[in-house]
Structures are given as C-alpha cells and as structure tokens.
Structures
1.
Amino acid sequence: MLPKAEPLRHGVPLPLPSAAAATPLAQSRLLLALEAILEPLVTVLSLWILVWFVEGDLTPPWLIASIVAFALAFPGRSLLRSPPDRVVISTLLSWSWIAGLLLAMGFATGHLYDFSAVVVVNWLWFAPVSQLLSHLALRTAAPHLVRLQGPALRAVVVGMNEQGCSLADRLAAASYAGIELVGFFDDRTPDRQYGGDRHRLLGRVSEIANFVKANRVQLIYLSLPMASQPRIKDLLDALKDTTASVYFVPDMFVTDLIQGRTDSVCGLPVISVCETPFRGPAGLLKRSSDLVLATIILILLSPVMLGIALAVKLGSPGPVIFKQRRYGLDGQEIVVYKYRSMTVTEDGSQIQQARKNDNRITRLGAFLRKTSLDELPQFINVLQGRMSIVGPRPHAVAHNEMYRPLIKSYMVRHKVKPGITGWAQVNGFRGETESLEKMEARIRCDLDYLRNWSLRLDLLIIFKTVRLVFRDTAAY
C-alpha cells in the first residue's frame, strides 16, 4: 500500500503537495521569481534571435507576436524539483499548446502569412530547446543563488508526530528551500515519539523559548494535536519574547486532503478538506477545453463513427448504441453511450465485468474494445455536459454500490465529471479489476488526479492514451 496522501509515481510523477509548500518560505523567493519569468523570457528571446538572424530587423509585427507569446507563457512553471523526464515532457506539452494557439490565432486572423515562414518554422523547435537549456542552467545555478541570499533559515518543529516528521522529511528533500531543520521538541517518552531515531530531539516543549533565543532560530512549526489548545496557547505566550516566525501545522493535514485550500465563510476562515479542482476559472477552462476538443474530434471522426455504427448493426442483432447507467458529478446517475460490443446489454443490479475470452463479446466488439473505439460515442456525452474527456472513468452503478463500502474515499472520485480516459487508465489500471487491490489502486490514481489537476496533466493523459491504444493488452 502507498503512504497516505502520497502521489502515485506511475509514468510522469505528479507534483507533491506538502505542508512546507503551504508556507511562503518553502522555496527561495528569488528562485520562484526566476522560474516565473524564465520560460516567457526565453520564449521571446529565442524569437528575437531568429528574427535578427533571418531579417536583421525587429519590426512591429514581431514585437506584437512577442507580447502575445510572453502573455501565453507567463507565469513559467516551477520545475526545479521535477525529474528530467518530466521537465522534458512538460516543456514540450506546454510549448505545443502555446505554439498551437499562436498558429491558430494567426490563421484565423489572416496574419499568419505576414510573418517569415523560415522564422516561424525554426522557432517551433528553437523555442523548446532554448527553454530546456534554460531550465538546465537554472538547476545548475540554483544552489549558488540560494547561498547568495545568505545562510539558511534555522527551523525547529514542536511535536514529533506523524505530520511533524512528514514536514521534516519534506524540508530535508527541498534542496532549494533555504531552510535548515535543527530538530524537534516534544514532551512524550521515546516509545511514543513517531520519528524514532530518524530525527534529533532537542528537548522538552517548555525549553523551546530559551533555545530559540540562544540559537538564532527563525522558524517554528507547531505540529501539536488540535485537542491541545491550552498547551498551544501557553507555548505561543512563551514565544512572544522571541522574533521567530511561527507556523501551525494542524494534525488534520495528515488526512487525505483533496484540493485543500484556505477560504472564508461570512468572514470566518475555513480550510477545505475535500473540494473539486474545477471552481471558478479552472472550471471554465476545463469545460471550454472539453467543448473545443470534443467538437473537433467528432467532426474529424464522423466518417469512422458512421462506419462503426453500420458494422455493429450488420454484425449482430441488437442496438448500435449501448446505454448504461453510471454515476456522474456529485454521484448523480447519468446515461453513458458506447458502441455495443457484446451480445448482451446488461444494466441491472448485478453486472459481470468483461473477462479474457468472454463469450459475450462479439468479434467486432473485441476489436472495438481493444482499440477503445467503442468509447467514441462518449464524446457526445462530453458535449451534453455529462462527462469530460479526461477524468475518473465512470463505473456501472452496480459496481459503484459494491465497492463504495469496501474502499475508503471511493465516492470522492465523483467530485468531478467522469472521463473518457483518466490517470488510472494510462498507468496500467485499464480493463478488468478482478481483485479489490486493483480497484483500490485505480481509485488512488483517480484521487491523485483530483489533487494535482492541471490542463497540462489533461494533455499528457490524452497523449499517453493515444499511445496506449496501439499497444495495450489489458482491455478485452
């Protein structure tokens, strides 16, 4: 089993949410500023270099194109802690999105042909190469830049418990945080301390104020149970005689947060424990991308879909479209479309998942399921607003009712619309889930998607899905 609330590491790793990341000191402010400006600046400079080399003069149309490109690329992504393969894939996906928008805008406005084709074509490869080289340069220079800002901030953690040790581990792994963890303060006996010998115990909680003043400690993280309110109040009173910044790490953060963020209700601060990532602008972006992509795909594949419909009708008796009840957003029942691939159309209280060599699957149906072509009618569900292109795959109602009491947080996956493809499917959890462990792994992938959603992640999943269709052996 994976650690609680730890992102899965299938394929490209997802960003790791951490208690440290919630504070403004989790990474050097200078590095954050450099990462925000790096990609937009390099994108524009790469264009200017090509224009100067080819045309020898930076004309107003190129300046306007530079401003638009900068706006689309800003702010740059934080990739310092990401592995090299993720940096490469993320950069290529991001540039493909920006370049595609620029070309589409130029074509739609009729100004694309006002620009030199030599510059445009070469910029398509020169810009991402320049971005990758700039990320490599920043990664090389980052440790020196952190040291230039002065000595690391010294920090202590109060409470050697699960969330305190998790914070300590993540601070140790954050090489660009500029924070040096000195140790822990805790009143419990060694047998009750969570970290064991992994972390240094400096003393009892009552000794922290004197230690902070004597050892130039600038940061204090309070990782005490929320039930210890009187203790916390006394400790805060004692720390008023120091200049250290104090951060509270409540024990609720050791639970499985989904899109945890601060908010307020009628002026009262609250912290979300489980929330959809598609609120406000993110929801508009998700829906807009669904509508655009689904419309384009349906137009391009309409001849293929008509041919499949005819083949299904002539191949075996029964309807062309199989309609099945599934759970959608907020657990509401929806009707999902698929090309019929079986001799039966089961949608009752008990449904048997398709198995290898299942005699219910028609000859054409086996091909459709293998290539995922049976899912194409679900792009109509996307236009209807019942589904998204990317999201947790919808399970039959019967399967939902069977698994929801067996798997913790199972229904949380319904905080978003179900998808035609998802993070679980591109990480090996497609097809039959013949064991509870496999279904649990699929659900963990779905929850990771909710925690870490971004448009880039959606594009990555779509790319991996297309690649998977041609070599997948799990679907039958």
Note: The two ends are 27 Å apart (CA to CA).
2.
Amino acid sequence: MKFRKAIENDILAIVEMIADDELGKKRENYQIPMPTEYIKAFEKINSDENQELIVVENEDLEIIGTLQLSFIQYLTYRGGIRAQIEAVRIRKDKRGLGIGKIMFEWAINRAKERNAHLLQLTTDKKRPKALKFYEELGFKQSHEGMKLHFN
C-alpha cells in the first residue's frame, strides 16, 4: 500500500468513500459532477501546512482508503502539538482486510514525525464497532465530547 497526499483528481473517490456508510449518506452529497463545495474545501485543506488529506492506494494504484490529519498548535503541554485524525474511510469492497489497522499505524507514525504529543479522534456513538476498533489500537476514552451544530 502507498500513502500519499491527495490531489484534486482524488476528490471524487474520497467523497464516495465518506458518503458510503449509514451516517455519511445523510450528510454528504456524492454526485457527478462533484459539487463545488468539495473542491473549495479541498483547496483550503491543500493550502494549509497543518492539514494532510491522505489517500491510500493498492498495488494497482486504486484509491482504497482515505484519512485526514490536522496538526493543532497549543500553548498547553508546553506548547505542544495535537494531531487530530478524521474521516478515516476504507472502500467498501476492501473492508475487513486489516487495512484500517495499517492506516492507523501510518497515522500514528506520521503524528510522531510531526512531533505531536498525542493523536486524538472522535467517533459517533452510533458506531460501536469503530469505538471497539480504536480501543484495540490503544486509544482511551479519556474525555466526553460535545458538539454544537449550526445547520
């Protein structure tokens, strides 16, 4: 597997993966042509040195996974950096093959390379399998998260 920074031509495959689950179907708009909101968001992500939108390719150069790492500078932890991992998705026909574990191992190493003091994530409570998977990787439920949606 090859990990690389996403390019604009990857947006369609990425959005297809993030829209391809029970929750994603309700909030994403996967269609051809790609809605401009996704292109604008990609441009912002791509221009920010603290954002890394990653795709994972198999040996046939097909995109089979994606994730986004955000590096957040803090004053706490003596000016530490937190890495946030989001939008981890694997193409439906490749799930259950251990790819997710490999992706997280890569992300953990990448966060360490960027001198992050921790890697954090959130997961929807409606995803109990994901929660179990993260715990098996060593993540701990240390905080209660809350959100305030504006739309």
Note: The domain at 2-136 is CATH 3.40.630.30 (Aminopeptidase).
